[in-house]
């Protein structure tokens, strides 16, 4: 099912993907009860205009989200107030990732891994008798470890040529 989208909407979705590539986080976190795992996409920034643009695009795409505000302490001059926008849940994160995945660069592998985890979880179903909790924990732990590995991969930046106006080539 390929939805035909307008040029303007595809530009906005590409902008959102770039925002996630630079300022966002794609993760699988334990829920508050610590009994299951929830896929999440968060984006944090100190500029409310940036978060407003992100929220506008998500709203147009009918992706659910919520805000949290991290205010700096009065005497802490090294930090600024931050706004975090979060989307969570299997269906919501799946919809979000399907919108941005074609445009992602740095976090494309993370998005694809989380999409495959979500598809696996949806295949299990929630009302088909006993829910295989241990199997879910194992798969979630494996997925979280792989997401962390992707997030913290190291590049050999010592070998970068110091030449101006040439593309950076990673080995």
Can you walk through the features of this model?
Helix content is 45%, strand content 16%. By secondary structure, the protein is an alpha+beta fold. Helix 3 runs antiparallel to helix 4 and helix 4 runs antiparallel to helix 5 (133-151).
Beta-strand percentage range: 15-25%
What is the SS-derived class? alpha+beta
Taken in chain order, the helices and strands follow as HEEHEEHHH
Question: What general outline do the C-alpha atoms trace?
Answer: globular
Radius of gyration: 18 Å
Q: Compute the average pLDDT.
A: 86
The main β sheet shows up as:
4 strands, antiparallel
First CA to last CA: what distance? 37 Å
If strands are numbered along the chain, what order do they take across the biggest sheet? 1-2-4-3
- Considering DSSP H and I runs of 4 or more, what fraction of the residues is helical? 40-55%
Report the count of strand segments: 4
Give the helices and strands, then pairings:
Layout: H1 7-23, E1 24-30, E2 37-45, H2 48-60, E3 66-70, E4 82-88, H3 90-100, H4 108-124, H5 133-151
Antiparallel strand pairs: 1-2, 2-4, 3-4
Helix pairs in contact: 3-4, 4-5
Please provide a brief summary of the model.
This protein is of the alpha+beta class.
Name the features.
171 residues; alpha+beta; four-stranded antiparallel beta sheet; 5 helices; 45% helix; globular
């Amino acid at each position: 099912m390929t939805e035909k989208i307008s040029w303007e909407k595809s530009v906005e979705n590409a902008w959102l993907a770039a925002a996630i590539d630079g300022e966002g986080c794609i993760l699988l976190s334990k829920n508050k009860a610590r009994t299951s795992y929830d896929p999440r996409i968060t984006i944090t920034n100190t500029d409310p205009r940036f978060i407003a643009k992100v929220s506008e695009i998500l709203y147009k795409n009918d992706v659910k989200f919520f805000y949290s505000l991290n205010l700096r302490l009065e005497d802490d001059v090294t930090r600024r107030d931050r706004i975090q926008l979060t989307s969570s849940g299997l269906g919501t994160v799946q919809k979000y990732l399907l919108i941005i995945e074609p445009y992602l660069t740095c976090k494309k592998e993370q998005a694809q891994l989380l999409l495959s985890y979500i598809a696996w979880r949806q295949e299990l179903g929630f009302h088909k008798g006993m829910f295989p909790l241990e199997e879910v924990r194992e798969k979630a732990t494996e997925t979280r470890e792989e997401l962390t590995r992707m997030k913290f991969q190291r590049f050999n930046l010592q070998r970068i040529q110091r030449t101006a106006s040439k593309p950076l080539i990673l080995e």
